[in-house]
Amino acid sequence: MINYFKFDRVITGFISGLIMPFIVGMIIYAFSTFDLSLQAYLSRLASSNIITHSISICVFPNVLIFLLFNWLDMLRATRGVLAVTIVWAIIVFGVKFLG
């Protein structure tokens, strides 16, 4: 039996919720570029006005982390994932309407 309770901290959920969108973004970058550098890829996203859509797609796997922590009854870590997802939503709102 694995003791998950030592990882049941808000910071665990917060860090996993911050890291997962970057991992998903790098996976999307790896499969969707055609010999573009990362800087060229990001400038292409920005010029196409789909940067908020890309951020939203990258943040979506946080739902899976949230459900996993909830299933494992790691409620403090679940709060961290929820908090960082709200921060990502505020960033998307800011980029969409203020940027």
Structure description:
Helix content is 77%, strand content 0%. It has 99 residues and is an all-alpha fold. The chain is elongated. The N and C termini lie far apart (49 Å).
Jot down its keywords.
99 residues; mainly alpha; 5 helices
**What global shape is seen?**
elongated
Mean pLDDT: 91
Following the backbone from N to C, one meets helices and strands in this order, namely HHHHH
Low-confidence stretches: none
Share of helix among residues?
Answer: over 70%
Structural class: mainly alpha
Strand content: under 5%
Total domain units: 1
Rg for CA atoms:
16 Å
Number of discrete helical segments: 5
**Biggest beta sheet summary:** none
Q: What's the total count of β strands?
A: 0
Distance between the termini: 49 Å
Quick structural overview:
With 99 residues, the chain is mainly α.
Task: Outline the secondary-structure elements.
Elements: H1 10-32, H2 38-47, H3 51-59, H4 62-71, H5 75-98
